[in-house]
Design brief:
Shape: elongated
Strand content: under 5%
Structural class: mainly alpha
Largest sheet: 3 strands, antiparallel
Number of strands: 3
Distance between the termini: 82 Å
Strand order of the largest sheet: 1-2-3
Amino acid sequence: MNADALYVRGLCLYYQGNVDKAFQHFQQVLKLAPDHDKARHVYKKAKLLTTKKQEGNEKFRCGLWQSAYDLYTEALNIDSHNIFTNSKLYCNRANVSTKLKKLDEAIEDCTKAIALDNNYQKAFHRRAKCYMETEKYEEAVRDYEAILKRDTTHENRRLLSDAKLELKKSKRKDYYKLLGVTKMATSQEIKKAYRKSALVHHPDRHCNATEEDKKQEEIKFKECGEAYSVLSDSHKKECYDNGQDLDGGGCGMDIDPDTIFRSFFGGAGGFPFSDFEAPSSGGHGYHYGHPPGGHGGFPGYAFNFQNI
């Protein structure tokens, strides 16, 4: 068997990313021709690359994320010309970065992997998942579309559909952010959040503000009411969470922010925020009211929202 022919074949396998088989070919070459310098040089690279990659894989399986990350990095520095193996190493390192909660670094490594091998589906999948977790839904949709073009499975269709739904939802008002609550908030937490926001943004409280500020506070007040109207209604909330349009399909959006406000604080008229006291430094809660027979607003009515 010709040593040079084996060397060339091993070199092809090596640069195609099949390092293990290439390693075996170089071993055969050196058995036939111990002084084959080129084979010995590439053999050392292949051996080191295989060792570092396997060690990284083992550390990953043991949950030693930083050690795995460091070993994959060392492997990436061995041979910059081995694009297919390096593509896998970048993808592996991206997986470690997700475990380390470094999603931006994971996205960067997946992008490097794809640049080296544009058909590397695993790198596309990993990057798309990171995009979803970082709420970069447009980028996730693009990746899942690329994935689906190459592999039209039911699962890939579902992933693309989920990404498109999240993209659609992200373009609407975020009612959870408007009230400052999470998606897991209880009805009581939603009520408390509404009370706090409504008092802060009620137009009567900003009667001495500039016209521009008045408009902004009025918008925020209406949005608070809109958010509460949806999140406090189990049917509307379900529609909203599922990405359905709230203007139709039984998820109506007839909202009067003043009506919602009065349902919390009572009364039918204005609310004199000149008599409203925000918490003093070191104090707690909001207080409003006058003794019976006092002037304006809701005589004798006191507002005391502790710990909101």
